[in-house]
Amino acid sequence: MRTEPVELTNMTMILDPKSQQVLVEYRRDPHWPGIAFPGGHVEPHESVTHSAQREVKEETGLTVTNLQLAGLKQYPLEPRGRFICFLYRTTQFQGNLQSSAEGPVFWMKLQDFYQNPQLAEGMEDLLNIMVTDFNEVIYQGEQTYFF
């Protein structure tokens, strides 16, 4: 069979090139809590890029432009299916920063990101996609693969 159920999501790393800080969100979601980049689900009939722009606006108050696809995160959904997260990055944003019901948003120095003990699970892997030549991370069971 060549088709399978797929859950589509997005996440965007916003980097301020002057301060070398990234915009993060402290997620309150009990299923995936901690510090992460803004993002969410792709709605039916919505482009993936537009969904990323919409999610950033809803969660941070900022309007982002010039989104660059950095890569993908994926893992199997049980009993059948796949979860795919499109990972974007940008340095172009405008507006007034404001938190949402998802959690507080704030700027963090990029070099402090890896050492932060409050990162959401797997965020180190996603940052690797955002800032390196890797373009995909796949989780299969206990294994993690970078391509």
TrEMBL record:
Residue ranges constituting the Nudix hydrolase domain according to the UniProt record: 5-130
One family name in Pfam for this protein: NUDIX
Family: Belongs to the Nudix hydrolase family.
Protein name: NUDIX domain-containing protein
Record organism: Bombilactobacillus folatiphilus
Native organism taxonomy: Bacteria, Bacillati, Bacillota, Bacilli, Lactobacillales
